[in-house]
Amino acid sequence: MRAVDLITKTQHKEPLSKEEIQYLISSYVKGDVPDYQVAAWLMAVYFNGLTKEETFFLTDAMLNSGDTIDLSMIDGIKVDKHSTGGVGDKTSLVLGPLAAACGCKVAKLSGRGLGHTGGTLDKLESIPGVTISLTLDRFIKQVKDIGVAIAGQTANLVPADKLLYALRDVTSTVESLPLIASSIMSKKLASGTDVICIDVKYGSGAFMKTIKDAENLSHAMISLAKLANKKVVCFISEMNNPLGKTIGNRLEVKEAVDCLKGKGPKDLEELCLRVCGYMCYFSGITKTQEEGYSFAKEKLYDGSAYKKFLELIKAQGALDVDFDNFIEVDEVLSIKSKEEEYIEHIDALTLGLVSMRLGAGRERKEDPVDFNVGIELTHIPGDKVKVGDELLKIYRNKKWDDRIIDDIYSAYSFSKEKIEPIPVISEIIE
Catalytic one among 92, 126, 182, 183? Predict the structure, then answer.
């Protein structure tokens, strides 16, 4: 078998067999097939796509390229949540403890953020003392003991994905539906959970720009899950505007804490309650998703979810934290409105990039993250503002770019008429 022959077949839209895809991926991971040949194959996939069977074969080859995790020592249904990423997305910090407070077993492996702000792991590590480096034994014990653990992926979990993604990034082949679906699902399937709830975001601040793109990705991932005998539910959510009111690691942790106390932004709360309702249903805790939603809301407002969050961070090493005095920066700048109208739209991508330039996110994997900096929205779409009213606060330290203020103003659009907000979840696909 030769890599060049497999490239030729994909170029001519001739389906590859399971053995052929397995050969290509395993040989690439071992170093027997060079980057330039795999890059040529990725480009052929980018233009010609893969069949559903080929996409599953690719996913299977990737997940078996390294370690897989066995969670059978944990009784009951194990659930996980994944997000395709967005601006201000602190959902896992709320949903994990909330679902555990309802009795779900939440075993979540996360990755680092690369872009607008840090990922879930960066946000957790912004809490003094918290570690995300858990051994598998400790990870499993924690889920058994308190119902939830959130940790970093092991170094040898799906190594093929790390190699392929790096190559896709530099060959402009990232935006390929079968490659995106296999990348996400190989990691999720290797993590060993039974039910995976995926928040598929669309809009300016998301990877998928249109709702149709999000729907297509959702159907592709659900097809892969069925072939692997796993349950996947996709929640399509809007990301043209930021989620919640904060962007930046500690700011988002503080907002998650507020949400867990029943005092958070309604869009974040609704997203977490809706996903948790499905987790409760598929875990057998409630008879319907709506009962799960109501049960989750009860646990959010009776203090159980926040108590579980404190258990989670303590189990992972947290020191005593005063979340009311959690953020330490050199300066907080107030940005005032120049308009007297309703806020129609706040471009998530623009504010995400501003946050990154403040130091809250990474342009490169090796870049350090400043946990304290970021943005806090004072008003959100649908609010009416007058000239001089505060639009948002900028939390800044030394890193600064004089164009930031102009970019922030460019993110806002206004309307003379009040705009009704878009529901946070547009569609649920099973």
Answer: 183
